[in-house]
Design brief:
Length: 242
């Protein structure tokens, strides 16, 4: 498998890279932490990856996003899976939220998915096969106060998932999204610290999820085993949304 993974240097993206590593060629996209990306490449190679290359890009910027994925396609000659994990949180109550905080979250969480999917799809259409997977969030349907930008970006991402699934259904390309609940990552640390007790009370399983649990589902959705699944938003949240 040839896979392109954004947000790969930490959290869910890192876990997915490690899960996909055996016998794969991986393009691992990071924004700032080159040391973490290089270390991840070494781990993936140790797990049996055929190739693991770090690519620096701010995927919220269209030229950078397109250059990164085009570099991977040229390096691997084809692309089997696009996994967009990169995401940011900049919470704030609506009346205090700056325009920049609104737009920066939308650019990274939603706009980047459009840029990447557009370039990936051109490659996948040529071979009439491919997997596109977005990482959404249960916050799209169960937001906390102050998450107007984040919830809107993830809601848009889920709508994009369904729209692209319909568009590519007859072309051998599936498009799905995973909507994690509260997972133990750096990204969720501030939320867990501020609302941890309240969140745990709301989760029927009474624990946070682990990145590897999301990675297991992601690996299935980008494999041939999921060939009849498309347009789905799959929650992995310990029952939080029930």
């Amino acid at each position: 498998m040839n896979a392109f993974i954004t947000g790969a240097s930490r959290g869910i993206g890192r876990a997915i890279a490690l899960k996909l590593a055996p016998n794969a060629k991986l393009a691992l996209v990071y924004h700032q932490n080159r040391e973490a990306a290089l270390a991840l490449c070494e781990e993936c190679l140790a797990l049996g990856a055929l190739e693991a290359i770090p690519l620096q890009a701010d995927v919220s910027d269209e030229p950078q996003a397109q250059k990164a994925i085009q570099t991977a396609i040229e390096r691997f000659e084809t692309l089997d899976a696009l996994v967009h994990c990169a995401g940011i949180i900049q919470d704030g109550l609506l009346l205090r939220m700056s325009s920049e905080n609104w737009h920066s979250v939308m650019r990274t969480n939603l706009d980047a998915a459009f840029y990447l999917a557009q370039t990936a799809a051109r490659c996948m259409l040529k071979k009439r096969s491919g997997r596109i997977l977005f990482i959404s969030s249960v916050s799209s349907r169960h937001p906390k106060p102050g998450q107007a930008n984040y919830a809107a970006s993830k809601g848009g991402l889920e709508a994009l998932t369904r729209a692209l699934a319909v568009e590519f259904a007859r072309k051998g390309i599936t498009v799905n999204a995973i909507a994690p609940g509260m997972i133990e990552t750096d990204l969720s640390a501030a939320v867990r610290e501020a609302h941890g007790e309240e969140i745990l009370q709301a989760i029927p399983m009474k624990r946070y999820g682990k990145p590897v649990e999301v990675a297991e589902l992601a690996a299935f959705l980008v494999s041939e085993k999921s060939s009849y699944i498309t347009g789905q938003i799959i929650d992995i949240d310990g029952g939080l949304g029930l």
